């Protein structure tokens, strides 16, 4: 089992910044992808950004140029630096880790952290 603990959410004015952190613990493959997803009220959960253990990144078009994902493999921690925040970024942000084990995909989620951007 893998446990993910997120921190760093909160309330910020439009144009401001927040940094989310997610620490993973437990047994997991060193070859994995960690990512951030978000879900706004009445909407489906969507990918915000992801990063592999090798450092390859992927971003949603809506956050490119504003958000930066990074990770510290030694600490099994992933970060999301969010700049130039907009009210439409308001959502619950979830951390996720995925890896292959015994031929199957393992996927684990954090409990979520609220990000609210006021206009």
Compute the number of strand runs.
11
Average pLDDT level: 96
Helix proportion range? under 10%
Largest sheet: 7 strands, mixed
Count helical runs.
Answer: 0
Low-confidence stretches: none
Describe this structure as you would to a colleague:
It is a single chain. The protein has no helices and 11 strands. With 119 residues, the protein is an all-beta fold. The strands form 2 sheets. Strands 2, 4, 5, 6, 9, 10 and 11 form a 7-stranded mixed sheet that branches. β9 (91-101) and β10 (104-109) form a beta hairpin. The N and C termini lie far apart (40 Å). 30% of the residues are buried. The mean pLDDT is 96.
SSE layout:
Layout lengths: L1 E6 L2 E4 L4 E9 L6 E7 L6 E7 L4 E3 L7 E6 L4 E6 L8 E11 L2 E6 L3 E6 L1
Parallel strand pairs: 2-11
Antiparallel strand pairs: 1-3, 3-8, 4-5, 4-9, 5-6, 7-8, 9-10, 9-11
Quick summary:
With 119 residues, this protein is an all-beta fold. The protein contains no helices and eleven strands.
Describe this protein with a few key phrases.
mainly beta, about 60% strand, 11 strands, about 120 residues, four-stranded antiparallel sheet, about 0% helix, seven-stranded mixed sheet
């Amino acid at each position: 089992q893998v446990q993910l603990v997120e921190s760093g959410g909160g309330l910020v004015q439009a144009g401001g910044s927040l940094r989310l952190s997610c620490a993973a613990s437990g047994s997991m493959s060193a070859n994995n992808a960690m990512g951030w997803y978000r879900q706004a009220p009445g909407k489906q959960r969507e990918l915000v950004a992801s990063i592999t253990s090798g450092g390859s990144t992927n971003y949603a078009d809506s956050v490119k140029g504003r958000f930066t994902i990074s990770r510290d493999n030694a600490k099994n921690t992933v970060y999301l630096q969010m700049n130039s925040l907009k009210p439409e970024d308001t959502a619950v942000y979830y951390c996720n880790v995925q890896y292959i084990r015994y031929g199957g995909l393992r996927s684990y989620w954090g409990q979520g952290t609220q990000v609210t951007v006021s206009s």
